[in-house]
Inverse folding.
RNA sequence: GCCGCAGUAGCUCAGCUGGUAGAGCAACGCAUUCGUAAUGCGUGGGUCGGGGGUUCAAGUCCCUCCUGCGGCACCA
């Protein structure tokens, strides 16, 4: 007898070994049809694998996250079968399910072409139509290795040889084809359905290591239903429309060109946006007790040797040699410069924490393949700062920083932030005891700030552990923006010191920190997140005043001038065009407010406001419109100040 | 940096097996003064990414370099 407990707590008795499919049939034919796999005491099992002991079982269908993952994993297998049928001699390696689909890495001398994708996909649909049963087998380890070597599957043989000793070696057959796989799998290829599509070809290194052979990866997407697939493809199209590179061109924000690879040409509108964000950040930093500095871009190699950058960061640095043979480097980071300022004069413990900020212009020679629009550039400006403090101040400074960071992200339209904790990397400066201390201190501070974090092992900076603050963009990509790094190494290498309460000299700790990360990347994320429809305070052109007839020209100039005095960035449109044409054009340009003025408005001294995305307009007296827009165009921090002082005024009146 | 793909007008793209470049939008000009997402007519615009080669002839074929795109690797 086998007793099976179902998720609702009910129990069913079976005479002997029973499979997930048997259980599903026992419950009902609908479930038997929908079931793809089952979990046995929490572990995923194939639907047909016999359960020989009492267990808790739940059935997995395409509606479950786990079911969808099975579908994707099977799609990878069916693709591998199709590829090996069509291109004999191709070796299979690994093919997992991923976030929106699957991939499989193949070893083949001939490159796959985009045309091949269509052929492979068609063959996949044949295999699905054949509805081949998928059968699990457990093999002997040595036999498995010998077998895969014999049939020329070197990579599979290598994988088996590397599996831990106790691990069962399972092979899945579907029709005449078989693959080493941990499983589980669908009962048959027909269950995969039709909601899949091959999407792209790419190179990928064996085991993710650039020193290994390069394999050919084929990506696909797979879903439970055709409707989901269609929705996903539609989402991709929408994402493409808000790609910051496209919007940057369409909206005239910036451009890139080959003579300055990885460096941005900011156009007037883009630069206005940039300056709006920068001015905002400058205010926030000042309010948070930072001082702003500026340090040299071209600095003698000697300083980078002392700081450790020459040893650890050399390959990413641009260098230049002067006629007298001095080697200079373009700064890739601002920290050594800030230590030089700290070292001027004698610092006392009373000066700490010293929060030193710089909108530091840095250059890094990033790999050509890494460059990506504004997101990954070679010339960029960080909202960088270094907090020189005592060890005792690490926790409170970290907490203050995290609060500031969250507030800034919220103001800029980002609510959810994830945090990664990166500990010591292989290539690093500083003694292990120093790292122990730094990691411990940062962990304590993170917990004190009430942050949830995930560990990112070995990803710290060469001088210290770090926190990474990650935002997700509109296309679902994660971008690291903010960072906070604890550094006991640089103050030592560059000989920073302060006089303590005890009158003796001490090393300060440096906290390297940035909120936006770089302006370039952050603005790219901002463009994609808003799809170019910036909130009023950020829009580089906040309002266009457009005439209906030439008779209103003088009044329009007056309105525009008044809006300008109220602090808005305004343009006028006096062209002899129909108002339909103007509204359409400015709407496409994503201007937040179109101020429409005709003969009637000019006579009545009113304006008609039309908001981006809306289809109606609001007619207001000019003075009212000026007040309303002036308040709405305030940066969030200034708006908070304004509402506070308004509250104070009201309290004064009451008193 | 590696693998694959691509580069034709400001933008989006067409140009079959080689015979000396085309559309829409944009721009410019003229007419139109028209009340909330495209007024009409007309005009100009291209060393077909750079270099080299094959050929009577190259946007088209070959080589090479550059840049971009998608991944991988990298991302202090």
């Amino acid at each position: 007898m086998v007793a099976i407990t179902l998720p609702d707590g009910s129990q069913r008795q079976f005479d002997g070994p029973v499979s997930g499919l048997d259980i599903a049939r026992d419950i009902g034919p609908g479930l038997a049809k929908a079931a793809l796999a089952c979990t046995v005491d929490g572990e995923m099992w194939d639907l047909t694998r016999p359960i020989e002991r009492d267990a808790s079982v739940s059935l997995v269908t395409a509606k479950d996250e786990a079911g969808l993952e099975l579908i994707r994993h099977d799609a990878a297998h069916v693709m591998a079968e199709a590829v090996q049928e069509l291109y004999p001699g191709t070796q299979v390696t690994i093919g997992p399910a991923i976030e929106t689909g699957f991939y499989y890495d193949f070893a083949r001398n001939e490159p796959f072409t985009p045309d091949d994708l269509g052929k492979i996909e068609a063959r996949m649909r044949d295999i699905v139509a054949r509805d081949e049963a998928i059968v699990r087998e457990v093999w002997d380890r040595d036999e498995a290795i010998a077998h895969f070597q014999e049939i020329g599957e070197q990579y599979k043989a290598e994988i088996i040889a590397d599996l831990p000793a106790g691990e069962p070696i399972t092979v899945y057959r579907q029709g005449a084809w078989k693959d080493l796989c941990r499983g589980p799998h669908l009962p048959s290829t027909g269950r995969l359905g039709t909601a899949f599509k091959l999407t792209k070809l790419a190179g990928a290194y064996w085991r993710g290591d650039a020193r290994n052979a390069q394999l050919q990866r084929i990506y696909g997407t797979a879903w439970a239903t055709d409707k989901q697939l269609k929705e996903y493809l539609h989402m991709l199209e929408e994402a493409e429309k808000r790609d910051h590179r496209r919007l940057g061109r369409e909206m005239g924000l910036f451009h890139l060109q080959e003579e300055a690879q990885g460096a941005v040409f900011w156009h007037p509108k883009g630069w206005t946006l940039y300056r709006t964000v920068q001015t905002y950040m400058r205010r926030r930093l000042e309010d948070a007790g930072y001082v702003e500095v500026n340090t040299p871009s071209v600095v003698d190699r000697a300083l980078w040797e002392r700081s450790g950058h020459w040893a650890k960061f050399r390959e990413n640095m641009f260098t230049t040699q002067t006629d007298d043979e001095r080697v200079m480097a373009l700064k890739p980071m601002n920290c050594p410069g800030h230590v030089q300022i700290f070292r001027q004069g004698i610092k006392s413990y009373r000066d700490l924490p010293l929060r030193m900020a710089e909108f530091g212009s840095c250059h890094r020679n990033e790999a050509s393949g890494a460059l990506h629009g504004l997101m990954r550039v070679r010339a960029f400006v960080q909202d960088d700062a270094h907090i020189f403090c005592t060890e005792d101040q690490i926790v409170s400074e970290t907490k203050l920083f995290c609060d500031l960071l969250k507030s800034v992200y919220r103001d800029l339209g980002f609510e959810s932030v994830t945090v990664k904790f990166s500990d010591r990397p292989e290539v690093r400066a500083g003694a292990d005891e120093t790292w122990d201390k730094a990691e411990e201190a940062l962990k304590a501070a993170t917990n004190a700030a009430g942050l949830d974090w995930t560990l990112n092992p070995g990803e710290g900076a060469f001088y210290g552990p770090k926190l990474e603050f990650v935002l997700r963009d509109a296309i679902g990509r994660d971008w690291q923006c903010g960072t906070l790094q604890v550094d006991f190494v640089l103050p030592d290498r560059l000989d920073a010191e302060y006089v303590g309460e005890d009158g003796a000299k001490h090393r300060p700790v440096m906290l390297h920190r940035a909120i936006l990360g770089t302006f370039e990347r952050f603005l790219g994320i901002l463009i994609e997140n808003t799809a170019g429809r910036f909130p009023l305070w950020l829009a580089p052109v906040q309002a266009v005043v457009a005439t209906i007839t030439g008779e209103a020209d003088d009044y329009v100039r007056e309105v525009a001038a008044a809006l300008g005095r109220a602090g808005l960035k305004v343009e006028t449109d006096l062209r002899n065009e129909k108002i339909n044409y103007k509204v359409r054009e400015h709407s496409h340009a994503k201007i937040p407010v179109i101020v429409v003025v005709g003969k009637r408005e000019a006579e009545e001294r009113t304006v008609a406001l039309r908001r981006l995305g809306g289809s109606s307009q609001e007619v207001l007296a000019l003075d009212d419109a000026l007040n309303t827009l002036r308040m709405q165009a305030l940066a969030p921090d200034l708006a908070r100040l304004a509402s506070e002082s308004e509250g104070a005024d009201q309290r004064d009146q009451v008193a």
Notes: The first strand of chain A starts at residue 2 and ends at 5. Residues 254-296+341-525 of chain A form a domain with the BirA Bifunctional Protein; domain 2 fold (CATH 3.30.930.10). The radius of gyration of chain A is 31 Å.
